[in-house]
Amino acid sequence: MTEEADKITKIHELIEHAREQMRGGPNNHAAYFINSAVQVDPDSKYALTTKSNFLAARDRYDEANLYLNRILSKNPQDVETLFEKGTLFANLGIYTEAMRYFEEAIHIREDEDIKQHAEYRKGYLEWNNECAKEYELEHKNDTKSEEKGK
């Protein structure tokens, strides 16, 4: 086995241990195994994406974004990572930024499944954004009516 293959095997083992720990509940050592995977290869897309997802699931979005940025610094056209960034921003409610990443992933089109999923997410965000605008408009009108009634 080569050194690179050994690294990949070790990373997969560590992340599998992390997944086992996450299934064990809140008092676990998943972070230890994920951090260890990143230490084995600080440029491993698999380890960095896992770390990002782990942090995002704990509402540590800024840190999660840093790990995605590390992947994109090596490969700015990584469609899966662009999609992950879009999802991260969508979860934060920053829809224009999310749409930008989904559109970029669609433009690059490395994988048909990702393209379809990104199109769906983009459409959902556009719809959600319209609903938010309508709600704001209705709420603004309700506030004006209340002020007139005073």
Q: What's the helix and strand layout?
A:
Blueprint: H1 3-23, H2 30-40, H3 45-56, H4 61-74, H5 79-91, H6 95-108, H7 112-149
Overview of the structural elements:
The structure is a single chain. By secondary structure, the chain is an all-alpha fold. 82% of the residues lie in helices and 0% in strands. The chain folds into two domains: 1-74, Alpha Horseshoe (Serine Threonine Protein Phosphatase 5, Tetratricopeptide repeat); 76-150, Serine Threonine Protein Phosphatase 5, Tetratricopeptide repeat (Alpha Horseshoe). It has helices at residues 3-23, 30-40, 45-56, 61-74, 79-91, 95-108, 112-149. The termini are far apart. The model has no long low-confidence stretch (mean pLDDT 82).
Q: Quick gist of this model?
A:
The chain has 7 helices and no strands. Helix 1 packs antiparallel against helix 2 and helix 6 packs antiparallel against helix 7.
Which terms summarize this structure?
150 residues, mainly alpha, Serine Threonine Protein Phosphatase 5, Tetratricopeptide repeat, 0% strand
Please summarize the sheet with the most strands: none
- Number of E-state strands: 0
Query: How many discrete domains?
Result: 2
Count every helix, treating DSSP H or I runs of 4 or more residues as helices: 7
Average pLDDT reading: 82
What's the CATH class of the largest domain, please?
Mainly Alpha
Query: Level of helix content?
Result: over 70%
Report the order of strands and helices.
HHHHHHH
Based on the coordinates given, report the CATH architecture of the largest domain: Alpha Horseshoe
